[in-house]
Amino acid sequence: MILFDSHCHIDDSCYDNDLGDVIDRAENEQVHGIMIVGVDHQTSLKAIQIAQTHDHIITSVGIHPHDAKHCSAETMTQLIRLARRNTCVKAWGETGLDYNRMFSPAKDQEDCFKTQLETAGNLDLPLIFHERDSNGRFYDILKSDGPKSRKGVIHCFSGTREDLFNYLDLGYYIGITGIVTLKKRGEYLRSLVPLIPEDRILIETDAPYLTPAPQKNKVRRNEPVFVKSVLLRIAEIRQTDPETLSQTIFNNTRTLYHVTSPGVPL
Question: Which of 52, 154, 164, 222 has the fewest Cβ atoms surrounding its Cβ within 10 A?
C-alpha cells in the first residue's frame, strides 16, 4: 500500500513538540507523500520550512476564506514570492468561500477568492478549494471566472450529488476526509463515494481536524498516518482492492500536484 495525505495542517502548533514522530509514524505506515496546506502567510511560510527538510513533503500557499479580510496586496505579494522561490510549493490554497461562520464578510471572501484564482492561473498552480454553505455562489464563480484548463481539488467534499457532478464536470478532483468513516455524519457521503471516478479521488486527513474512525475513539488530534483509515473505508465502499486503489489515488495526487521529486516514490 502507498498513501498520500493530500491535505493536512501539521504546521499547527499542536505538533510542535512531536512533529518528527508524527512524520515518522506516517512514513512507517507507507504514507510516502504529504501536502501541508497554507491558510495565510505565516502558515504557508512554516509549511515551507517543514518541507525543506523532508523530500516527501510538499506545500501550498494561500489565504483561507476565514482570513479573506486580510487579503491585502502586500500579503498576496508575499505569497507569490514564496511560491516562486520554493520548489516545494505545488499548489495555491486553500481558498474559496465559507458562509458558515462568516469570519470574513462575503464581499471580502469573494474578492479574495477571485484574486487567488487569477494568481494561481498566472503561476500555473493547481488550486485547493474550500467551500461551506455558499449556496451555489462558490460554483458560480468557478464556472464563470477562469479557464477550463484550471486544475484543482474540492477539499473535504461534503456537498450534494448535484454538487459532486458539477465539480466533476469542471474537471476537479474530489478530496475525501475521515468524515467518510463516521457512522452518522458520513452516511450521505458514503452514498456518493461510488459515483466518483477512480481517477478523480484524493484522500486527506485535514489534520489536526476530522480524526477518522476508529482512531477518533482513542485520540482527538488527527495526523497523516490516519489517512490509511480513509483509504480502507473508501475501498470497502467501492468493493475494490485497497492496495490497487491506494496506488491509483497516490498517482492521482502526484498528477494534480505535478510531483516528480525523487523523495516521493513512483
Answer: 52
